[in-house]
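Consider the following assembly input.
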Amino acid sequence: MSIPHISNWIDGQYTPPSAATIPVLNPATETPLATINTTSAEDIDSIISTSWQTFNSGKWSALDSSERFAVLTKASTLLRTHITDFISLETAQTGRPIREMRAQLSRVPEWLEYFASLARTHEGRVTPFKGPVLNTLTRVPLGVVVLITPYNHPLLIAMKKIAAALAAGNIVVVKPSELAPLSVLKLGKLFKEAGLPDGVLQIVSGYGAETGKYLCEHPRISKIDLTGGFGTYRAIAPVAAMNMVPVTAELGGKAPVCLFPSVDVDVAVKAALFAGFIASGQTCVTGSRLLVHEDIYEAFKELLDKRVRALRVGDPMDEKTQIGSVISAAAVERCRAFVERATGEGGKILCGGGRTTINAEGKGFFFEPTIIETHSTSDLARNEVFGPVIALIKCSSEDEIVRIANGTSYALGASVWTNDFTQAHRVAGRIEAGIVWINGHHLNDPSSPWGGFKESGLGKENGVEAYESYTKVKSMVVNYGVAPVWFDEEVAGARYG
Ligand code: NAD
């Protein structure tokens, strides 16, 4: 059976296929969906060089902000029109349940709308400069920016970055994950139809260690915005530093879900289910550590066990499926190895614990939703699984919950569940994390800065912070009264500085 090939999108059109290609699998069936290009170092060099010509032409970077607003809002409308196709494609390439992808993708156009509005409304400043001098600060685009995105929310994460970068007037070169690149590769045509000039959004595919590396090491880029693992950040950071290229890094997490006795056990369990098992545990803010106060521990554990066992693992295209596949055989193996190490360290499997299948042929990369009772210093309690294997930890006090919550090298998201108003503020204030939710988990919005502390990242996506990170400040100093008399004879009080 022949499968489609989806090439790079460069200068407003699909390029010819590369000689070597990469297959993209449906992880729920292991059948190939399409092939994509590998992109060589020479091709990257040529793409960056053309992208600079486009930047310098000013056809996007110097466009009036009202015109950038018009293109991005039209792209948002087109995305809404075609969202059903994107939902099916996203489900097929990630193995995530269609109901999740429908809910997630229906909000993606909001990122275009938000950043279009920022482009239109963002204002510069006038400083209180001494004397008859007017000093204006304006923000100008950086140049050619490189976006490197992961497989777990392919379209959402790419769009968060693309929308901010384009709104600010940059030329974007985006490389989606080789594991789930198809929805992003389809964006080129949509933006073209919205009126984006050719060459402003360049979409390339390839392996991270090859194409991703060539992009990040290119000396002519102006910024790298990576969402991925800490190892990937460490691979790109030294060269970026040498080339003086700023990096935004959205990395991994080990989000604690802090559950206090004032919360109804039923609500606590629902919170844990959503935090732990959305996307089969493959989100950076997966609530992978359930820190439960001892006063509700036994009741919580009993109900959690019952609810997790009842979760419907199945075909992601089925509307009733609650848990889809993980992304690959390697992800299944990573989950299995975490379970093995956790039990080796004295952990007790409450439910799940192994690979599972949803059909007689045994195809697809499925792992059971798994809960393991463990202690706070175990491998499972400290390291990111990025799969549906969740640590359950009994805690004796508020202090212990806070201490454990802060006890990993990650600090991205955390949630605090309590009906005690003072406790909510007290605990949220003490937790070290870029995002703390109170009585919620994984709530987000294009206006709300997103990013971690410690090894979870650098810089922010979303909000004014993200927009400004795609610009640099230009200071213009206009003199309307300071005479240039310094080297005249006998000038008293001539101004210097
Ligand atoms: P990954 O780091 O393996 O890959 C991410 C991207 O980096 C891919 O496009 C990949 O091809 C590319 N890449 C890999 N090696 C590279 C290199 N040497 N140079 C340049 N590019 C390279 O991550 P993944 O497995 O796709 O995603 C999972 C990770 O991403 C998890 O750690 C997860 O927590 C994190 N993540 C973080 C956020 C966040 O907002 N903080 C969101 C989603 C995922």
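The pocket of nicotinamide-adenine-dinucleotide is lined by residues 148-152, 157, 175, 177-178, 208-209, 212-213, 216, 227-229, 232, 235-236, 250-253, 284, 384, 386, 412, 452, 457 (CB under 6 Å). Ask yourself how this observation constrains the way the partners meet.
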